[in-house]
Amino acid sequence: MPYTSVEEMLSLRPVGLDDSLPFTFTSHSKMTFGSLKLGAGKALTVLSIEKHDGEEDLVRCHVKGQTEASAEVCIPLSSRGEFSECESEECYTLKEIMASPCLRSRRFRFVKTTKCERILILSPVYQVQAIMNLRKNVLRFPSSLEVDVVDVTDVCKDANFVTPLNLTEVLSQPDESFPVVAEILEEPESRSFFKCAWLPGLVKSTNLILHKKGTTPMVLMSSLKGRKTQQYFLVSLQYGGRFRRRPREFNSVYEVYVASTQTHNLIVSVTRNCEEVEEEGLPGLSIGERLQIVDCTRMELPCENNKGEKQSVEALLCYRLQEPDDEEEDEDDETEEKDKQEEAKEEVLLPLYMQGHFVEVLGENKKYKLCDLGKEFSLPLDVKVVSRDTELETDPLVGFSCLRIEGAMLEPNIQASFPDRPDHCFHLLPQWLSLSVSFTKDALPWPRDQFPKCFTEKVSEMTDTFFYEFRKKGNSDEAPPPRPPKRDMSSSNLVKKKSKSTKKSSKAKKNKDKSVLTEKLNDLTLNHKKRPPAPLPPDGVNDEPPPLVPRKYSAADITSKAKPNTYVKINQSIKRDVCDVAADVESDHDYETVDETLVAVVKTAQENVMFY
């Protein structure tokens, strides 16, 4: 955007001149200041404005030369020419641009050029909201609409107009305005934060009874993630049920450290084994070990970084506690045992980046009210409802194995009810519910000066959107957990090479054993094709078994009682007689003579196979 003078360019800066410095501009023509001559297109950076009494104000600028030489020059504000401000890296939102008349006169482009690369001139389009005396809905029309408007205020003095109020404006009304009957002009948005039974009743043209306004302390609870969908509840501190603490679960040492800052003398139990890694300083932990958290300190790691320097990391100092014996002991023995345990406390250092599984050890089984939990313990806190609120028809918090109190809030609210059930009230939260109403002159549904005894809803189910918005407003500046230190790559490579060599040797051994086994399997017929059936015997062949060849007997065989094996020929050695009884002891087989019954069975089996 070209300017005709330096003074005009400075007067149209988007924000205060002192806050917008420095900025850069160029001149489209040559400029001469004493002995200094600047060519066209030379960039000048405005550093400050110098004011002198009785003299013209000067602009002190910084100029860079071609050989990276720099100089400072003072330019009078009255200097004329054609000046253009260089594109600035400063970013603005649409709200900031529309709120500043100087910014609206300037040109912009999107930060992300993927949307649009062209230069933009932004101009506001106003919207007028109006309401008619015959209609109760709010009308909206743009300011660019070409209509003729006539002021008729003096003529229509008797016309009655309703005043639309949002819930925030209802809170600003005086206490004397309540209770009152209000009519809903605009329904809540479809994307609501509530999952309550009264939400579908907030329909346009429906009446509401607004009893009073106030501020109620509340807590946000959530159920644990599991097979069922996670649920969220907004619970008033007036809830009459009783709670019992539940042990918290931690999946890292960092989570244990955060809990130890909130709980004094925190004791946790290990729920999963952890292997010891000396290089990273990770100690070995076994299931059931109890650790008492002492303090957060620093520890030196045995491994070195790539530069060969020792590394130190943040760690949690713990005492490894001994498990108490189950047998009953006297008081003197118990005190002696405690003294021994204190003397034999073993210190354990757990790096904050260490992954692990722990569960909190609770030393009491007391019941608490909801208001007492917030006073004695810090949030978040895991609890379970052990006795329901008797004033509630159905207590939605009963039945959950564990509920987590995520946080507390102090919410301004409006106590409201429907005309058909004026004694059943609920809370309208202006911060989380968009609703437009108008006060009416309708009578209240109860006798004058006889207010009913109201029952206010204490538990409201919320959506996950409400939970995420609540977390955004909460602990958004929490520091991330620490990262593990960098290890020396040479040592890690040696470990990897060793592991690879061991893997290769074991793999070769397995392949060798596998090859031997494969050769044995190949000898079987399972890996070959199916053998063809045996050929049928030629005609005229006798089906009787082959004749048996008689065996030659030795002198020892003749004297032995057992008959020799006539099927297999075995080289038998002569052995001395034992107890004057000769026997074929050294033979590998000592079969008995095949009788005729066995021969008949074999023949039948052969016939069946041949028939098949």
TrEMBL record:
<feature type="compositionally biased region" description="Basic residues">
    <location>
        <begin position="495"/>
        <end position="512"/>
    </location>
</feature>
<feature type="compositionally biased region" description="Pro residues">
    <location>
        <begin position="533"/>
        <end position="548"/>
    </location>
</feature>
<feature type="compositionally biased region" description="Basic and acidic residues">
    <location>
        <begin position="513"/>
        <end position="522"/>
    </location>
</feature>
<feature type="domain" description="CABIT">
    <location>
        <begin position="2"/>
        <end position="161"/>
    </location>
</feature>
<protein>
    <submittedName>
        <fullName>Thymocyte selection associated family member 2</fullName>
    </submittedName>
</protein>
<dbReference type="GO" id="GO:0005634">
    <property type="term" value="C:nucleus"/>
</dbReference>
<dbReference type="Pfam" id="PF12736">
    <property type="entry name" value="CABIT"/>
</dbReference>
<feature type="region of interest" description="Disordered">
    <location>
        <begin position="472"/>
        <end position="548"/>
    </location>
</feature>
<comment type="similarity">
    <text>Belongs to the themis family.</text>
</comment>
<dbReference type="InterPro" id="IPR039671">
    <property type="entry name" value="THEMIS"/>
</dbReference>
<dbReference type="GO" id="GO:0050852">
    <property type="term" value="P:T cell receptor signaling pathway"/>
</dbReference>
<feature type="domain" description="CABIT">
    <location>
        <begin position="178"/>
        <end position="416"/>
    </location>
</feature>
<feature type="compositionally biased region" description="Acidic residues">
    <location>
        <begin position="324"/>
        <end position="336"/>
    </location>
</feature>
<dbReference type="InterPro" id="IPR025946">
    <property type="entry name" value="CABIT_dom"/>
</dbReference>
<dbReference type="GO" id="GO:0005737">
    <property type="term" value="C:cytoplasm"/>
</dbReference>
<feature type="region of interest" description="Disordered">
    <location>
        <begin position="322"/>
        <end position="345"/>
    </location>
</feature>
